[in-house]
Structure to design on (330 residues):
């Protein structure tokens, strides 16, 4: 049986008459870009499948689906690590419907937090109900005392809630990403973001950032994607003309569906250029989260991560007498 909310939503979309509803439990849909979405398929149309994620009803074009499986099975028929990580609630990846920016800010703005250390202040965003959050590695670099400020919706407007003793869970200084764990009290249940599909980001798309530039809390800036894959020092970034300033670092870059498509990370100095900002693509974030154990933070080694040794150099040897140059090279 469908839940009342799912039936009502389907009816509003006109699906009851044109789709065949399914009541056979959860399915895992594997998309062509490798993402997996697990939920209850509540209706189907000729060109789309509608999935109830529990908090949103999403439409997935059929031409983007490469495989469907019952429950949380992966391509091999056994539980998939990626599917389990996403469907278990560690983070949500989905396609949402477009909404005005002001409505998206009201819906997802509560998930954007301020990250504070004794020496710096940046931004971050919650990825699940358990208090896990993403920020930039450089925001907390060299620090062990980390706090977070939440901005909660209340009847009188936004209220600030400070969370101390934030735990550093994983750190990847090479991609400038960090995973934090906020110790929520039992009465605190803020919202979290939805991670989008990096393949849907295109030059010219409208995007907006929420963060704390120069300490100005809860600032929203809007722009477009100037370049979807800008190479800087061997790493790809989303280039945007959305205003990015110190304090925005670690905050989310949203598309017009409210999906996080990047993590704001860099901005040009005001005396050098205008409207030049960069965000880490969401694909890097998902890989970091799926393999977070590999980047587990060690307080005895703040620079956790891989370090590669220089390759051994070839030693030149003198050519033995009587050998030709060709013989010596064998």
């Amino acid at each position: 049986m469908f839940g009342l909310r799912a039936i009502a939503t389907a009816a509003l979309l006109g699906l009851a008459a044109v789709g065949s509803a399914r009541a056979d439990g959860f399915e895992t849909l594997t998309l062509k870009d490798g993402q997996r979405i697990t939920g209850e398929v509540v209706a189907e149309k000729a060109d789309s499948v509608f999935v109830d994620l529990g908090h949103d009803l999403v439409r997935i074009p059929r031409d983007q689906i490469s495989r469907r499986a019952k429950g949380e099975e992966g391509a091999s028929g056994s539980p998939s690590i990626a599917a389990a990580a996403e469907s278990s609630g560690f983070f949500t990846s989905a396609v949402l419907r477009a909404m005005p920016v002001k409505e998206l800010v009201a819906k997802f703005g509560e998930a954007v937090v301020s990250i504070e250390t004794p020496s710096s202040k940046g931004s971050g965003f919650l990825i699940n109900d358990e208090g896990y959050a993403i920020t930039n590695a450089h925001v907390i670099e060299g620090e062990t005392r980390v706090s977070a400020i939440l901005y909660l919706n209340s009847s009188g407007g936004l209220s600030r809630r400070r969370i101390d003793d934030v735990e550093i869970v994983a750190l990847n200084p090479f991609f400038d990403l960090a995973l934090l764990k906020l110790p929520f009290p039992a009465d605190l249940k803020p919202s979290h973001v939805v991670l989008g599909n990096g393949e849907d980001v295109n030059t010219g798309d409208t995007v907006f950032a929420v963060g704390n530039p120069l300490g100005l809390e809860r600032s929203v800036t809007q722009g477009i994607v100037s370049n979807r894959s800008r190479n800087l020092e061997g790493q790809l970034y989303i280039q945007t003309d959305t205003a990015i300033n110190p304090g925005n670092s670690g905050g989310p870059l949203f598309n017009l569906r409210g999906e996080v498509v990047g993590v704001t990370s860099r901005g040009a100095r005001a005396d050098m250029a205008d409207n030049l900002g960069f965000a880490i693509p969401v694909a890097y974030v998902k890989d970091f989260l799926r393999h977070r154990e590999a980047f587990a933070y060690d307080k005895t080694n703040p620079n956790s991560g891989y370090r590669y040794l220089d390759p051994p150099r070839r030693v030149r040897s003198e050519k033995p007498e009587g050998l030709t140059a060709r013989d010596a090279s064998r």
